[in-house]
Amino acid sequence: MPGNLERDRLHEFPGWWGLERKIRPAYPAELLGNVCRVLPFGEEHQNSDRYLAWLRDFEVIRTLNLPAYWSPVQKDEVRRYCAALRGSENDYFFAIALRETGEFIGTLRAGHIDWRADIADIGIMIGEKRVWGGGIAQDAIATLARWLFDVVEIRRITAGAMAANPAMIHVFEKLGFQQEGVLRSQDALPEGGYGDHILLGCLKSEFVRGQAEALREGDEDARK
Ligand SMILES: CC(C)(COP(=O)(O)OP(=O)(O)OC[C@H]1O[C@@H](n2cnc3c(N)ncnc32)[C@H](O)[C@@H]1OP(=O)(O)O)[C@@H](O)C(=O)NCCC(=O)NCCS
């Protein structure tokens, strides 16, 4: 009897049977890093001119692997994208702001969350190019990863980057991510041809907390 199949065979699936779907924790008001703040992506970010400008900036989108954005992305498309992410049960979508001034400089996402296997995928865009190389991406990812591991109880975080984006791969590796695979000739390159896509992963025990661990006090402040 198909309807009783699961019940009759529970003993054969002790792993899956025990995996309850987690209740999704609410967004934090703010996560405080050493040099940045990670806060829920809101209307003010979506409507800011700079967000659209970043998504139309070739130097920003070329390593985001977004060939469709080459013919400039339109406001409506961005609005739909943001609405889908913000309404998704399996994503957290954040804005990144400079810690000192509050200036909106990028976005950060924990996406494709599997609430039974406890895995999430991180993606980041620092749109404000003048702050590149200032350690913001590392700080933002470390801050988000700490919250995902410690509060959301994610077990494993994944990420992907174009092989043509060595800075991104370097940042993830500094935080303890390991290269786990190569999708060969996966990404259409703007200059022509195709490039590899690197898959990275980090288990909670591998996460290099270093800098991030010192941030607890800041987080307490942010919650007050
Ligand atoms: C890639 C990106 C996130 C990096 O952000 P960032 O704030 O400049 O990164 P950080 O300053 O924290 O770190 C950059 C690191 O890469 C290193 N780096 C820079 N160029 C490098 C290169 N060609 N090869 C190897 N490492 C490089 C820097 O030295 C620095 O490492 P260090 O702190 O050990 O010196 C940012 O440039 C960006 O958002 N680009 C556009 C969108 C994008 O590519 N997003 C990622 C999609 S997966």
The bound ligands are: coenzyme A
Question: What is the fourth-level CATH superfamily?
Answer: Gcn5-related N-acetyltransferase (GNAT)
Number of strands: 8
Number of domains: 1
Task: Sum this structure up briefly.
The chain is of the alpha+beta class.
Verbal overview:
- The protein has a single domain, classed as Aminopeptidase (3-Layer(aba) Sandwich), CATH 3.40.630.
- The termini are far apart.
- By secondary structure, it is an alpha+beta fold.
- Helix content is 33%, strand content 27%.
- The protein has an eight-stranded mixed beta sheet, with helices on both faces.
- The structure holds coenzyme A (COA).
- Coenzyme A binds at residues 60, 63-64, 123-126, 132-138, 161, 165-168, 170-171, 174.
Task: Chart the SSEs and their pairings.
Blueprint: H1 5-8, H2 14-18, E1 31-32, E2 36-40, H3 43-46, H4 49-55, H5 58-61, H6 75-87, E3 92-98, E4 104-114, E5 119-126, H7 136-150, E6 156-162, H8 166-174, E7 178-188, E8 194-203, H9 210-213, H10 216-223
Parallel strand pairs: 5-6
Antiparallel strand pairs: 1-2, 2-3, 3-4, 4-5, 6-8, 7-8
The structure holds coenzyme A.
